[in-house]
Amino acid sequence: MQAQRPIELFQFCPQCGAPNLHCEPQENNSRCLVCGFLYFFNPAVGNGNILINEAGEILLLRRAKEPSAGCWDTPGGFIEAGETPEQGAQREIFEETGLSVTQLEYFVALPNVYEYTGVRYDLIDIFFVGHIVGEPQIRLQESEVTEYQFFEPKDIDLPGIGFDSVRRALALYISR
Q1: Among residues of the chain, what percentage have pLDDT more than 90?
Q2: Which residue from 22, 133, 141, 165 puts its CA 20 to 30 A from 39's CA?
Q3: Domain segments of the chain as ranges
Q4: Are 125 and 164 contacting, i.e. CB atoms less than 8 angstroms apart?
Q5: pLDDT digit string (tens) for 20-66?
């Protein structure tokens, strides 16, 4: 079964309860044909973080769960309501690695698709670059991450990266 966009899963109007939601293919909104309520399904926002140690190596984490369980990824995740992209990046880095990285520089934003439990979520992933000073004391969030490794940029196996936006961001970073 192919993952569905959230807009395709709504069967009833969230305002009046009518079973007449109408959505045009490739549109990002649904209109109730009874009350006129218009609901927009815009992309969620995530972050990915290219963290560099003093040797110039990039920190990658192996994902513990789907989607892309067992694949390499950068520290990151969804930005929560009320957070700036930088705050979300710092929170995700700390949650997944125990590292406090305060100096993050915007690098690139890329569209992505995140398929989870049969639902296809469109995302905008914002990537930052940060530098790890000193010997890192990494503490993994075991529910999310099974291992970590620092890689020389030239040694990163891009096809082994779990998400397209992360592959593209790493390729852009490595090529600069």
Answers
A1: 72
A2: 165
A3: 6-40, 44-175
A4: no
A5: 777 766 677 888 889 988 888 889 999 999 999 999 999 999 999 99
**Does domain 44-175 correspond to CATH entry 3.90.79.10?**
yes
Q: Quick one: pLDDT at residue 119? A: 84
The partner residues of 77 in beta bridges, in order of sequence, read 47
| Identity of residue 91 | R
Structure-token match 């560099």, residue found: 52
Distance set, CA 1 to CA 4, 9, 77, 112, 144 (Å) = 9, 14, 25, 20, 25
- What's the DSSP call for residue 161? B
Q: In this predicted model, which residue has the larger pLDDT, 159 or 42? A: 159
Listed residue (46, 48, 18) closest to 31, CA to CA: 18
Report residue 176 as tokens. Answer: 């600069």
Tokens of 63: 């994902």
Cβ neighbour number for residue 169 with a 10 Å cutoff: 27
pLDDT for position 1: 64
Within 13 A of 31's CA, how many CA atoms are on the CB side? 5
Cα separation, 62 vs 44, whole angstroms? 23
7 pLDDT higher than 80: no
